[in-house]
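Section 3.1: Structural characterization of target chains.
Under the original work plan, the team committed to producing a structural model for every single-chain target entering the pipeline before any wet-lab resources were allocated. The record below documents one such target. The sequence was received from the expression subgroup and is listed exactly as submitted; it comprises 388 residues.
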Amino acid sequence: MQRWLVVLLAGACASCRACGGASSTEDAGTHTSARVDSGAPASIDVEPFRARARVPAVGWASVTRDLESSGAVGVADVERSEPASATTAFEAASVAKTIIATCVMQLVEEKTLALDADVSSYVGFPVRHPRLPAPITLRRLLTHTASIADREETRAAGDVALGDFLAGYFADAGSRGTFLDAAPGTSMSYSNVGPSLAALAVERVTGVRFADRARARVFEPLGMRTTAFGVDALPPGARVAAPYAARGSSFVRLPAPSHALYPVVDLFSTPRDLARFARAMLRDGELDGVRVLARASVDEMLRVQLPDAAPDDALGWQVRSFGGRRVVGHEGEDAGASTGLYLDRASGTGAIVLANGDAFQGEDEARAAALGELVERLLTVQRASSGP
């Protein structure tokens, strides 16, 4: 499910991937939605980036602490020629890991979870390296330093409860290649199982399914009305961008995503909703008078935790470079989804790109680079409008 690829501007993408396929059809039409807030920049022609990435649609947002601009180009549903807009829900894929980290930090604030406690004490089954005694902690899970391997079954469909899947995954871990050779905490190896365990810890200590906890404690407080884990959990009437793979000049429609490890990938959200989340993080955990995290918690979450073992990873967030600026965020990749959310805290700006295509999965690196260039442009435009 996990894959690395190189995009322009010194960024390395790592996220979820699934597989599937259906019928093919031709691309059709483009559409750009209006700017959300007055004063936010809208001087970007996104369509050339979409065309170069060879995806049906691109939703985007560019934000500061106080302003946002969002929109979309292309088609959300190729067969119906349905245009995408700022209120179209796209699969955000591994951008979901930033939501997991936010929910974990809320419980750390409440002293219900501790970043350096053995996660076994939270999830209800042993999570231990069979040969090395170092504990598996939330800090290590969220920085991908827990020495956990993603076996092939991590691609399993979402018809198994998260806790049941993970308990089975760690049964007889010593004989099933569940762990790598490195001691936990000593090196980084990207894993979707690790953050899923962190989400399960949230479930177990609250007694609430992770998707419902995220809705109640992050999405609803921030006014993210068209954001949910799983397409079926979106509000009635929500417009959803269907997933596609590029095949020559056509697009092949793919099945809707469904993963047993749903908290790390099956997040659906709109450019406008994710703009609100990004602004809340730029504002140190608060938006419109509602606080979802204390400033100290945001600082801790976005700080590189283990500079020797994982210099490019904070807690559920990645550190990247765009245009010579270090930013925090996360890439997302799934079958028919190529996404990213990034924050430049120094300048107080952020950028979001959501595509319903496989730009991050093809052999043509120029497709991924096009989305990377769009991110840089969105960040640059907001920096220019915000001053030096």
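The longest helix spans residues 365-386.
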